[in-house]
């Protein structure tokens, strides 16, 4: 079942990213919500390596099997990434955003390092999965795919692509979940107000391009925490702090053609859907050193 797979992802993510439980706890103590399940999860996101047997074409098969629909493509020239978003089979499920590194656009040295890991996966591992078996899917999403990297390889990759270094260590670990703020009580239901609440409680926000990332139509507003650092253990046994995952917040405004709907009648389909390349480009930087170094 889809909800089992999503719950498995969320529980591992929550164990790894203390900010997740801290945001939820603070929302409860502030009286914004009663319990964690009151939070609407706008979307979740994954990162992957764009090599033939892996990448989006592989990972997406899981979610297409569970009824997701592939939607728009986004291209990030500077970061050498492609991404797509997927609409859920029913509105109680989160959207999914999956990006992949355009490995062929990197230097020969970086490509060689990446292939030395990804070549361990000889065939698309998702084709071998029984996708109806949600336990098997859950196990797969939390398996290593390739050997633990060396610290040296991690550092060489990070110097050229922080995204590449993130994926070589973190693999398919959930990159973030996203709190929908627009259905929260007044005082918290805009990104501007919610950011203020977060900062008052000590959460550090990604300020690349400004703390509020806004789509040109003004209807999709996003913010994100700076990723928390975790102590990674590399193949030679070295402990080294690297960026883990972060938490995102999204405000989707009611589309102009539904502006006259009574607040109680507004549903997901009346709000701005999809993603925005300009916003996403800056949100990726939540795991980049320029942001994480502000925090540690
Ligand atoms: C994804 C960044 C983009 C969004 O909502 O536009 C994003 C990532 O950091 O992998 O999450
Ligand atoms: Ni996101």
Automatic annotation (TrEMBL):
Pfam families membership: HGLS
Cofactor needs: Fe(2+)
CDD domains linked to this entry: VOC_like (cd16350)
Any one Gene Ontology molecular-function term assigned to this protein's record: dioxygenase activity
Keywords: Dioxygenase, Iron, Oxidoreductase
InterPro entries: HGLS (IPR009770)
EC number: 1.13.11.93
UniProt record similarity statement: Belongs to the 2-oxoadipate dioxygenase/decarboxylase family.
PANTHER family: 2-OXOADIPATE DIOXYGENASE_DECARBOXYLASE, CHLOROPLASTIC, DUF1338 DOMAIN-CONTAINING PROTEIN
Name of the protein: 2-oxoadipate dioxygenase/decarboxylase
Species, as recorded: Chitinophaga dinghuensis
């Amino acid at each position: 079942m889809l909800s089992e797979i999503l719950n498995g992802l969320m529980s591992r993510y929550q164990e790894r990213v203390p900010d997740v439980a801290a945001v939820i706890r603070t929302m409860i103590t502030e009286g914004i919500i009663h319990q964690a399940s009151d939070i609407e999860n706008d979307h979740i996101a994954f990162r992957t390596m764009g090599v033939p047997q892996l990448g989006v074409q592989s990972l997406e098969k899981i979610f297409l099997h569970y009824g997701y629909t592939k939607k728009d493509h986004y291209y990030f020239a500077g970061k050498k990434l492609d991404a797509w978003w997927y609409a859920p089979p029913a509105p109680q499920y989160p959207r999914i955003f999956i990006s992949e590194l355009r490995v062929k656009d990197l230097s020969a040295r970086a490509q060689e390092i990446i292939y030395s890991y990804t070549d361990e996966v000889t065939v698309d591992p998702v084709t071998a999965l029984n996708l109806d078996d949600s336990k098997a899917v859950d196990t797969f999403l939390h398996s290593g795919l390739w050997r633990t990297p060396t610290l040296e390889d991690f550092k060489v990759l990070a110097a050229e692509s922080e995204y590449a270094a993130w994926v070589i260590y973190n693999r398919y670990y959930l990159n973030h979940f996203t709190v929908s703020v627009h259905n929260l009580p007044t005082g918290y239901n805009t990104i501007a107000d919610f950011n203020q609440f977060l900062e008052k409680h000590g959460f550090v926000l990604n300020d690349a391009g400004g703390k509020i990332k806004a789509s040109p139509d003004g209807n999709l507003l996003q913010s994100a925490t700076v990723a928390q650092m975790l102590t990674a253990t590399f193949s030679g046994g070295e402990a080294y702090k690297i960026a883990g995952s972060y938490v995102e917040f999204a405000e989707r405004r009611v589309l102009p053609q539904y502006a006259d709907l009574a607040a109680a009648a507004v549903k997901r389909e009346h709000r701005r859907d999809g993603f925005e390349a300009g916003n996403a480009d800056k949100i990726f930087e939540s795991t980049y050193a320029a942001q994480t170094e502000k925090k540690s």
